[in-house]
Design goal:
With 314 residues, the protein is an alpha+beta fold. It has two domains: 106 residues, Phosphorylase Kinase, domain 1 (2-Layer Sandwich); 181 residues, Aminoglycoside phosphotransferase (APH), C-terminal lobe (Aminoglycoside 3'-phosphotransferase, Chain: A, domain 2, Alpha-Beta Complex). It contains ten helices and nine strands. The strands form three sheets. Strands 1-2-3-5-4 form a five-stranded antiparallel beta sheet, with helices on both faces. A two-stranded antiparallel sheet has the order 6-9. A two-stranded antiparallel ribbon has the order 7-8. A hairpin with a 5-residue loop joins strand 2 and strand 3.
Length: 314
């Protein structure tokens, strides 16, 4: 590892670089400034630097050790616009509310560079090659550690805010990308957005992670896991289960897709004692939104697979 004040030597993961370059001049500037930002933060927080972690798409994460000898992760978010900067502030609030329970502990943050210094954790569920049924169960169990009541004045968006944003993103991306799936898929997602908004009850809202998949679920030792990258929303627990619903699409394309997706919704809902229809709806919304954004941002067919599963679920 380098000493704290040395220039960092790291490789930006391919998907992070792809996403930055897809955002034009702002993304290229973010990439060009990364070495200086990392060097400055290492000096500010007295860090010895390791290598960048693979994986992820929206931030650079570097393994570090602090002056106390703690393993840490230095995360610099790709905050290219006001939405990204707002998302960063929400992640800080979510980390503070979680306070290390079901989520990596936050040691420090820097608003100017959208940087976090986090508790170092082990490998994620994908790297650990956990079989899909056990992976889904680990996510569900960790979510139940993470969920907690939150006050309305905590400056996090509600489920109503979130689905309004998602509905706008879905329609805007669909038009801008030349309509890469049928209008029926988009309309179903918008209908479900309206239903989840109408169902929102602020008196029973919990802190929702917002992106609880296996790549964000890391080994915390002793058979437990913690999340990274919380988005922070006041919503219903079923909202979070929409994320493991939307991912891992390969097995869903082999056989009766709708039946397989319904079975996953029932499984996740049963583990967490929530309404399976709400899980199904959140999964459909997230699958369409993620599929469209992947078509926009990445040079592979992953986004098309998300949209194909959604199409088969009409």
């Amino acid at each position: 590892m380098t000493e704290p004040h040395d220039s960092p030597a790291f490789v930006v993961p391919a998907l992070v670089r792809q996403r930055a370059e897809a955002h034009g001049a702002a993304g290229r500037q973010w990439l060009s400034e990364l070495p200086a930002v990392v060097t400055s933060l290492a000096a500010q927080w007295e860090l010895s630097l390791g290598s960048a972690y693979d994986g992820g798409t929206t931030s650079l994460v570097v393994a570090t050790t602090d002056a106390r000898g703690r393993a840490c992760a230095l995360k610099i978010a790709m905050a290219l616009d006001d939405h990204d900067r707002t998302s960063f502030r929400r992640s800080v609030i979510a980390h503070d509310l979680a306070d290390g329970r079901g989520c990596a502990r936050l040691y420090a943050h820097d608003d100017a560079t959208s940087a976090l210094l986090l508790e170092g954790l082990g490998r994620n569920l994908a790297e650990l090659e956990v079989p899909l049924p056990l992976l889904l169960r680990a996510i569900a169990d960790t979510l139940q550690q993470f969920w907690r009541p939150v006050p309305e004045d905590c400056d996090l968006p509600s489920a109503t805010d979130r689905v309004a944003w998602l509905a706008n993103e879905i329609t805007t991306m669909w038009d801008g990308l030349g309509q890469p799936c049928s209008r029926a898929v988009v309309d179903r997602a918008l209908d479900y957005c309206a239903e989840r908004s109408a169902a929102f009850d602020p008196n029973h809202a919990v802190l929702v992670h917002g992106d609880a998949h296996g790549w964000n679920t890391l080994d915390a030792g002793a058979g437990t896991y913690k999340f990274i990258d919380p988005e922070g929303v006041r919503s219903e627990p079923a909202h979070d289960l929409g994320v493991p619903m939307r991912e891992y699409n390969g097995p869903l394309l082999v056989g009766d897709t709708m039946r397989l997706v319904r079975e996953r919704a029932e499984l996740l809902a049963g583990w967490c004692a929530v309404d399976p229809e709400a899980v199904w709806q959140w999964g459909f919304i997230d699958r369409v939104a993620t599929g469209l954004s992947n078509v926009r941002d990445f040079e592979n067919d992953d986004g098309a697979i998300f949209l194909e599963v959604a199409t088969r679920c009409l």
